## 1
Amino acid sequence: MINDTFASYALTTRKLTLAYEGKVVIDSLDLAIPTGKITVLVGPNGCGKSTLLKGLGRLLKPKHGVVYLGCDSIAKLSTKAIAKRLGLLPQGPTAPEGLTVRDLVAQGRYPHQGWLQQWSKEDEKQVNWALSITQMQEFAHCALDNLSGGQRQRAWIAMTLAQDTDILLLDEPTTYLDLAHQMEVLDLLYDLNQEQSRTIVMVLHDLNQACRYGDYLVALKDGIVYKQGYPNQVMTETMVQDVFGLESQIVSDPVAGTPLCIPIGRKISIKAPIR
Amino acid sequence: MKQWLIIRSSWSPISFHIDRRVPAILGGLILATLVAMVLSVGQGEYRVPPLDVIKTILGLETNNSDFVFIVMALRLPRTLVAWGVGVGLAIAGTITQGITRNPLASPDIIGVSDGASLAAVALIVLYPELPTALIPLAAFGGALTVAVLIYLLAWKGSSSSVRLILVGVGFSLIASALTNLMVTFGNIYNVSQALVWLAGSIYGRSWEQLNVFAPWLIGFGILSLLMSRELNALQLGDEVARSLGSRLELQRGLLLLSTVALSGSAVATAGNLRFVGLMAPHLGRQMVGPSHEGLLPVAALTGGFTVVVADLLGRLLFAPIELPCGIITAIVGAPYFLYLLIRDRNS
């Protein structure tokens, strides 16, 4: 997928090496994130998915290599300039006690504001839009700590949306949510991608959700890309075996037609089939 | 839009929003503070009626010519010092809690104030011949040293709020031990001066101390207020703040500098007044929520009011014996700190 023209790629990495306290987590990675698509990073715990996401979002300074935002090296842009083009929601963020949803979502406007201009009409418009698209308007006055996990996560997503960036990076946006809320969040992101062609890069744990919602999949193992491409190219029994060390069968998702991974595990005795 | 008050001008890009409770609460606090100040100035061995206090301060004629001297030279500067110290400590506490995201943190708990005390006592005891204007500088240096050590040892790369408090309490103990050592071996005359000041007293504070303290308070107070937006971003966590485009190290550094300067200069002026920096931000958050545009001024005025009242109570309760107001704030503040600790453990 590496191409010399940056135009069709929202984010590109060249020989990107990321390290935590001297320990290399991502090793000399070449990756291109296509513009206007949903790219999902999958891989086992500790493979470097979150680290890569942080690297893409300039939260982690590369040891070697470069991240390009469009055609610009991310290291040469001011952090505020990046924040207008790229929004990043880390995993499990925490807000101070008593902060209301509206206060939080308004924080998304930070990169667009200055000392004198702290609440323009545009700020107000974007915050209201973010609240309504995430269906958080009725909770706008509520303190975050009084909400359910799903509502809280939607509030954080609304904050990232209010930032009004073309690129959204999300680290496990569905963690701690029940299945219905997981689908709700993923549907929301899908709509944003379809209706406003926002580029979305996210880390997901559920392989089946990754296949259903991702245009592209990047399977990471030990800090390197094991395989990348369309879900039906990446999601194979061999990949699941090599990357996750898990025996599985891949069938077609009866609802969406995308690959569906059925883990075999050790419990293989067949119970009475459903009639 | 009921939650916020929006100020926006049609001809310029100026626009703000603030919690709608803020103006009324600020008004109430200013009024309460003025009343407490008038009562405080009137109170003493030689009572001055409240109306005469106001008249004297406004420069109007009263029927007793002694009032001018009592009010203007003796009592007003003292009350203003009390207020300013409370404001400074409250702002320092609010910033500390914001940047550490730790509701138990404040300069007096994590040892920053004790570092300031130690440096100031060292200056008083070891170099009594140096001018008093240097005390705030020494206190600032002491506070900065402790702040930097805490940052390096307990904060950087660690998100544990308990660790920060424990390391801070450790520094606090070391600094007080060294201060005691200084007091034990110092020259008796210098030591007695240091002791009165250490208890957190504003007894006998005059225009001279106020003039030294005011520039620190005004300068760093304004800097802090201008950085409310940055504080709001920082209290969402390093990663979110950075994603939002905050220049983390620079902004945190500036805020930390403000905290150190405000608590250092407050300690230099009135000794170690405990718990004001811890309590004022909590009371402020209960009134206007955690957004710093409103919280900083509300907490600041709450702190100012608290110390003025503590000073007044210290003189009223066992008159004619005078309790240092640091003792009053500690008596109220220590149980409050325990309450916060217990509540934090349960949640």
## 2
Amino acid sequence: MRWLNLLKANVRMEYIEMKRYLPNTLALLLTFYIIFLAAFFGIMFVGDPASFDANVQYSIVSVVFWSLTMMTMNFIGFSVVTEAMRGTLEQLYMSPMGVWKIMLTRMIGQFVLQSVLMTLLLFAAMGTSGQWLNLNPMTTIPIILVTMVSMIGVSYMIAGLAIIVKQIQAFLQIFQFILMGLVFIPLSVAPMLVFAPFVKGVNMVREVMINNLTLTQMPWSDFGVLILNSSVYLVIGLFVFHLCEKIAMKKGLLGQY
Amino acid sequence: MEKVIEVKNISKTYVKRKTKESITAVNDISFDVYRGEVLGLLGPNGAGKTSTIKMICGLLAQDQGSIHINGMDVRKDRLKALRHISAVLEGNRNLYWRLTVRENMEYFAGNRGRSRREMTNQIEKLIIQFGLKGKENELVNGLSRGMQQKLAIAVALLANTEVILLDEPTLGLDVEISYELREILKTIVKEDRRTIIISSHDMPVVQELCDRVTIINQGTVIVDEKVNNLLELFETRAYSIKLGNPLTENQESQLLSTFPLCTYKRGPLQALVEVNLERSDDIYDLIEIFKAERTIVESIDRASIDFEQVFMKVVKGERNYAMA
């Protein structure tokens, strides 16, 4: 029950903040739509007409997932820095629930809210291009949920680093492009990326949406790899976060900005 | 009385990042806080108060020693210990300025695992108690500093913990708001009987609210005593002596050499001596000085002393308080 109350409080908080900063949220959504349009018109005017449909579908899924991963993962880093600047980070550390749980509920809240926005972006992109993808929620949602676990793992690493090194914004800006690479480069071109976080999941979602696969048509080994990848990143993420917390408490960095 | 907080031999040293120079902020401090007690943690700037408070809250790890809250080790069982403690560390900076008064209260309660429904009555009660009625749906950034400070304290009370730490609760507030806040805190102390640690430079607040003070200077405890005892102790030794004629030069130099910290104010016909008589024999030495030139002693009164003066005397080193 305490967990549920914590989750409710943080999802509500994220929702309120999103509402209060609505112009920012809409501007961001518009930015991602413009990026999609750039990709779409690029394919239309420069790309190979024979593979036009496939390329557009590929870019729709990639832009939407890039936006989702970026918004969810960078969010927590910015969130820690903002809390430290405001002076509320130490108050979060006064909660007997533990900051890792607060961060987790915030990430879940952010993921849910961003998913709603990204669904809007997805439909806008599909409507603009006339390319309607197979959404198949029964297949895509479980894959996305497991993929999200690895995103949470990486988010914990970012949050941990942000607690120690408050000037992390420059890294987060570079990180956007790393995420772009991870989402856009197909696994068939760079198979080693299967070890990177969430790449396998995005690849599987692409398979479902573009090639109309269902859950049962996908190899079980793919699910195995996805679950293993997500679990490993979650464990590493939590370990790094707790380690950074310890360092911050030892050096007195929690209240510093 | 039952101990709620036990601080034993804690030390904390920081290392400067650039120069690698070590700075000892807290050096082997020990003190206890008892159930229902209001303790003032005092000291000049840089004395080590904030580091001590942060170590009690588990926000800063001590290098040595231990801190127990209700028997729970803050270092080993931090989250369990935090169930018994809440704090206002940076006043109005502890709040979310883009949330309303009520949203802040609900959010912080939720962060402790409490539901909004469960907290409704208590939130309403605190809104009224802290004079925030009518402001509950306003954004915090639109409130005055005094209101923000009140809200920060209300949020800490909402946690329903036995121990509350208040770091500079009246810092930067005008006299009126400071007084109002002091009255609210007095009511809380009286009615709730919570264990409170107040760190403050506002001595009237300390004198009015605290049962006992622990004064820290340069990282070590220099006084741990009840407020009333300290006041009494310094009051009994401080005398104001009105003389019917001024002292001669010889008497004056003898007075200042025997009582270097005394003040002598010479008027055209009269004079005033303010002196601390720390030893029981001091009064005879003083009378001898007056007697030598048959100086007329018009009155001898106990000088009234407030806690600010006591604090200054202790910090400046007039600390033979243990003798009494």
## 3
Amino acid sequence: MNAVKQKDLILYSGLIILGLAAPFLFSAFKVQLTYLCVLIVLAMTWNLQGGEMGYNSFGNILFYGLGMYLTSSVQVGMFFPLAEWTESGGEKTFVHTTAQYFQGIGVGLIVAAIIPTIVAGAIGYAILGLRGHYFAICTLGLGIAAGEIAGGIEIIGAGQGFTTPPFPAEIVDPEARGQFFYFLSFLVLVLAFVFVKYIYGSRFRLILNAIRDNEDKAEAMGIQTMKYKIVGWMCSAFFCGLAGGIMGGLIGYIDSTDVAFDGREMGVFMVLMAILGGKGTLWGPIIGATLFHFLKEGLWTFILGWQYVALGVLIVVIVVYFPEGLMGWLREKYPERFGEVIDEKDRKAQVELK
Amino acid sequence: MDFLIFKAPMLMVQASLDGILLGILFALIAYGMALQWGVMNIINIAQGDLVILGGYIAYTMYLAGIHPAWGVIVSPIIMFFIGWALYKLVINKVVDRDLFISILATFGIAIVFQQLMNFIFGADVVVAQSGYGTTMLFDNSVTLPNSKIFSAVISVLYAIGLVIYMRKSKLGRAIRATAQNARAAKILGVDTERVYAATFGINAALCGIAGALISITLTLHPYVGLPYTVRSFMIVIVAGLGNLPAVAISGMGLGLFEEFADYILGTEFRIGAVFMLLVFILVYRRFKLSKKREYLK
């Protein structure tokens, strides 16, 4: 037991050192690394309710987009009139000082974490009562509706988009912006990992799994399923909001349907990454997201213009031929590694049955 | 309330007529959705993209100098084979699986279709001119494009034809048997694999007809497929599977809702209103179902 723990310790400290050193080692890829962190956070928290709870949501993009708009709105609104900012390129008239910028983004991220969590809690009772595919379609509708509605609201820029405050010009170091966002996202990633890891060792995870495996039975056993479902969704919403806030600052420009409530990209990516790595495992979404990001960035440039076709084909192939994901496949192949004991007799009997 | 529509009652007539004619078209798409959902137990997110593809077939004919109205005959034939091929390639692997798998897989298909259409036909909003002119009603205060009337009539004709086909023909009987109990049908000698392929093909053909009609009444764009999927999904969950009059009525209801939402909320919120209605309907349904007591018999 002790040896395992020591191995874990080495692994985690190695990963953290790698994470901290990455922006200096791969200085040119800071933005990509930030993306990777955000993608991992999204996949990991999607997995929490998609993989563990069995509620396959297409709508977590709602919280992501909400967080994005909230962070930037708060960041602007704290110091300047928001309406004038969005009206016509306010970023040219109003300039954040360095202190204002960091204060704004700090408060903005806190708001972006809290409000989506509250929203998830508020709509959770209505939405999470839906089962299976009704839930999936309903959340798909929610995400798209949010994008369409945000595209009609004037104060956050409506259809023409919203420019987030530019990084303060007083900081002359060209590396600073990338490093700031990278470390911010890395911090959120570590937070998310610690949180998910904690959940994986807790009773809460068992309850979520019980809901996934048979909700009616779980309820009959005296578990207040609705309460736990809502809490599970709120956990996802919290991190989605944070991730959205960081991405808003990083991209520097928010469009209602193409950046914030981007169901066609981010909304699908997070589902796909979790499935690629293996739903319902701790490391699956992390590996899936990393693999997906490398695949995407590596291949995209070679098939320019065809990337969405490739994405669609990738979705079909993964979902149809590879639904258990990488971790599921490994688990099938090396069950001992996952601490599963296989009864030889049982296996023989199953082979004979086949 | 300071809305234009309440000041001018004629606008209400206009919106109602538009909505009903549009709704009939939606009902046709929804019928295809109900068919494949009932028979194969899959939800096809690519439904709307099949519709748009059907529309582009008619539009291509229009570009080639053939009247686009012929699209309502050509497009379903081509779409039937596309649907059949799609079934053989992908759908047959997801039929017996979890519904979520089918949703995701068809989502992938939808993305592929959108992009391919974008490459082939370009990202412009296009419309095929039917040249049917317009009918003026009530002292020219209500304008009704004849193409909309044409599309409603064609939709009704095809729907009636399909119902008769499903009742009378051998394949129709096989499809209905498979929908009731696939295993029993298989035991009794129905080639369910073929039935599934045919069902998906018929669904695609229905989408083709609807698309051809949309190409002359509304507009086409590679990325507007998803709203059609959502509309048909909505109609199906309101009407239930296999209840054709209810599908027609809820289709018209949806058309009315959209036209009025268009006038009252503004065009920019039209699609948003459709998706919000979906959420609202699902939530309403959930609360209604949760009131129903369940017990073991």
